[in-house]
Specification:
- This protein has 390 residues and is of the alpha/beta class.
- It contains 15 helices and 13 strands.
- Helix content is 44%, strand content 14%.
- The protein binds pyridoxal-5'-phosphate.
Length: 390
């Protein structure tokens, strides 16, 4: 057989697949996969259904439906005070993942360096490698997962073409503060690098914190590509509707990559997302408040079991330090044990690293119904009891 592309040939079965398979096999509560088990907003669902029957089902415009692009520009003004020209600065994609691929393929050349912040969303590395670029890593460490100047100094070089920043951050649950965002801006400007801002969890921030988009940071407006996802904002991850906001020169190039990836995205879903993005403020507040309530329910339960839970400022994810549990082995071995013996699936955070893995933290997704979270806590009580017995 002829050789195939090594980037994909070298990818094995991911730990996400392994944990989901084990969860099915052991009829476990699956808090591994990062998706909410809600239905999503009924009015958005109804509009999508109605549009299938009454609207057009032919190719929509390559850049997206006008109404959705206008809604994106209004959303940028409403939440971030940004003036965005919908015609030259917005584009709709098939999920944030396609937006990432189009952005990386459009901006990065073979031999460029791209800075990734570990632990990172798993799609980043193969996309960067497939573009022929060299990844450079900034490795965050628990319990604070803070961006530090020394790590930026080590990762940036004259060959740095871009940095990918996920904020609010999966899997750490961090929402970067003003000082950290200023650090990103300083180094991106210094290296004349692009900032690929994966902000899919922009509306899932807690405790009154505010999400600041990198697109609005001083010095970053012309070099930042902001990516979003209706999947997260409307709890409809299967829809795979994403969006890109960037200065006209960048957006134009990214659109050229997008036209030969998916070209477009189902029109009924776009119309429904346009309606969703135009919802009154209360929708967005309630989304965050509801996720915060679930976070609190789950995290309080974990605390009661004596587990070491890390701070969670946003996203769907709560992390537990297993280092002090006195259990031998890595986070991956721990997750296997958890699903096989106690019937709860989680994800080892080492799976989100490439260079210098942290293997003492596991990630749970709390974007689930109360009954599911309670069931998981009940099962985890077995773990707490077994620790008391030793
Ligand atoms: C950080 C991050 N970026 C991107 C995505 C993908 O978004 P989409 O489903 O819109 O492609 C996810 C989904 O889990 C994510 O967690």
């Amino acid at each position: 057989m002829r050789n195939v592309n090594p980037v994909y040939a070298s990818l094995g079965t991911t730990v996400f697949e392994t944990m989901s398979r084990l969860a099915r096999q052991h009829q476990a509560v699956n808090l591994g996969q990062g998706f909410p088990d809600d239905r999503g907003p009924e009015d958005v669902l109804a509009l999508a259904a109605e549009q299938i029957l009454q609207g057009s089902n032919q190719y929509p415009p390559m850049l997206g439906l006008t109404e959705l692009r206008q809604a994106l520009a209004s959303h940028a003004k409403r939440f971030y005070g940004l003036d965005v020209d919908w015609e030259s600065e917005t584009m709709v994609t098939s999920g944030a993942t396609e937006a990432l691929a189009a952005t990386i393929f459009a901006l990065v050349e073979p031999g460029d360096e791209v800075v990734l912040i570990e632990p990172f969303y798993d799609a980043y590395l193969p996309l960067v490698q497939r573009a022929g670029a060299v990844p450079r890593f900034i490795s965050l460490k628990p319990p604070h997962w803070r961006l530090e100047r020394a790590d930026f100094q080590a990762a940036f070089s004259p060959r740095t073409k871009a940095i990918i920043v996920n904020n609010p951050m999966n899997p750490t649950g961090r929402v970067f503060d003003a000082a950290e965002l200023a650090l990103i801006a300083e180094f991106a400007e210094g290296a004349d690098a692009f900032v690929i801002a994966d902000e899919v969890y922009e509306h899932i921030v807690f405790d009154g914190a505010i999400h600041r988009t990198l697109l609005g940071q001083p010095g970053l407006r012309e070099r930042t590509i902001k990516l979003g996802s209706a999947g997260k904002t409307f709890s409809l991850t299967g829809w795979k509707v994403g969006y890109v906001t960037a200065a006209p020169r960048l957006l134009g190039l990214i659109a050229k990559a997008h036209q030969f990836l998916t070209f477009t995205t189902p029109p009924n879903l776009q119309a429904a997302v346009a309606f969703g993005l135009s919802k009154p403020e209360v929708y967005f507040r309630d989304l965050a408040a509801d996720m915060q309530r679930r976070r609190d329910r789950f995290i309080e339960g974990l605390h009661r079991l004596g587990l070491d839970v890390l701070l969670c400022e946003g996203t769907y994810f709560a992390n537990v330090e297993i280092g002090r549990l006195g259990i031998e082995g890595t986070d991956e071995a721990f997750c296997r044990m958890l699903v096989e013996r106690y019937g709860v699936a989680a994800i080892p955070v080492s799976a989100f690293y490439s260079a210098r893995p942290v293997n003492s933290v596991i990630r749970f997704c709390f974007a689930k119904q109360d009954a599911v979270l309670d069931k998981a806590l009940e099962k985890l009580a077995g773990l707490a009891r077994s620790r008391e017995a030793v």
